[in-house]
Amino acid sequence: MSVTVIGIDGGPLPEGSAEALASARLVVGARRHLDAHAPEHARRLELGPFQPALNALAALSGDEHAVVFASGDPGFFGVVRTLREHGVRCGVLPGASSVQQLMARAGRSWDDVAVISPQGGDIGAALNVCRARPAVVVLSARGAGPAQLGSGLEGWRRTLIVGEDLGGPNEAVTTVDPAEAARRTWREPNVVLCLAEPDAVPRRSWFAGGEPLPPESGWALHEDEFSHRDGMLTSSEVRAVALAKLAPRPGTLVWDVGAGSGSVAVECARLGAASIAVESDEAQVVRLITNAAGHGVDVRVAEGAAPQALRELPRPDSIFVGGGGADVVTACAHAGATRVVVALAALDRVGTTRDALRNAGYEVSGVQLSASRLVELEDGAASLKPTDPVVLISGHRKGEHE
Ligand SMILES: C[S@@+](CC[C@H](N)C(=O)[O-])C[C@H]1O[C@@H](n2cnc3c(N)ncnc32)[C@H](O)[C@@H]1O
């Protein structure tokens, strides 16, 4: 048995398709593709679930030929991977991918664009990538279309460009803000381009999908890398341990509660997570906005006092509590995160913090960190200068994806 996969993009079929179809005994594809392109002489099998197609392919004899229709480039989030996974080798005649088509309609280069295919309709990770990165295409799926993306992106400054039925008779390309995307009904199939700055020209890069992580200058940055008030920020050493416990990464959302100058929120964003900084002091809010801009990352600011300010925020994967009382820790322990890290200067709060996390179902660990930094005395001799000791209490419980 031999198999040719033909990609359909609304234009003429790719070169070589006529020959492949003329010799096909079996043709597999979506109803609309079969109606438009399947030859009379071949047996048709409509998709649906893929297993019947695999069975029908396996039943063909050695010299029989089959064609599988798929959308766009079947090698990109498509059927080629599924066939190979089941041991079926195939030739591929690709069409233009829906991502290529949308980017062409938008008249924008796309080497910097991250492409997300939500797994099992789970929109959470896709939303967090759109919240964190400046340019993302989402291959929409059931429960993860333009309306759901729009509703999850309210509160972030984003523009959505929706491509419906690209290359087809009902093609439409529409630019909307998240609120408008959430209100509308959208025709399928569609793909969504999500941009932070619709008119920005991306920097020339060497790596498709956006800069790789972690950033060139590393992480757990020195305090001098942030604007701060009188040294009131998490030290680099404590931040290093806190970041390791928070595990920020693309697809996750981190809250930095009592964010101060926002060093933790900024570092999480630099490591690819979506970040929300919760802060009540106006001057600190200005500082943290400056720090996010200085590091070229998007940090959403929720200005106000926790726990009230936490109420309307989307569910986080990780929470760093750098400020606030026992009521803030309790609220964070019940916010649905997989990881919670609380930094404490006051020892009398260690027990209550541990208990609040434990009572909410977390496995709790704690460490006191007191680093002494190497400094040089006036005569050039090496000496050590202690930083303020901090206790980190960390709670971890199994998340959806672990
Ligand atoms: C499983 S992925 C396959 C992607 C495909 N291999 C490609 O290169 O475009 C299916 C995604 O493509 C989108 N899609 C397929 N055909 C489309 C079209 N004509 N217009 C807009 N989106 C399309 C679907 O909505 C979905 O988000």
UniProtKB/TrEMBL annotation:
Upper classification of the organism: Bacteria, Bacillati, Actinomycetota, Actinomycetes, Pseudonocardiales
Pathway: Cofactor biosynthesis; adenosylcobalamin biosynthesis
Organism of provenance: Saccharopolyspora taberi
Keyword Methyltransferase: yes
Keywords, in A-Z order: Cobalamin biosynthesis, Methyltransferase, S-adenosyl-L-methionine, Transferase
Superkingdom of the source species: Bacteria
Name listed for the protein in its UniProt record: Bifunctional cobalt-precorrin-7 (C(5))-methyltransferase/cobalt-precorrin-6B (C(15))-methyltransferase
Keyword hit for Methyltransferase: yes
UniProt domain Tetrapyrrole methylase: residue ranges: 16-177
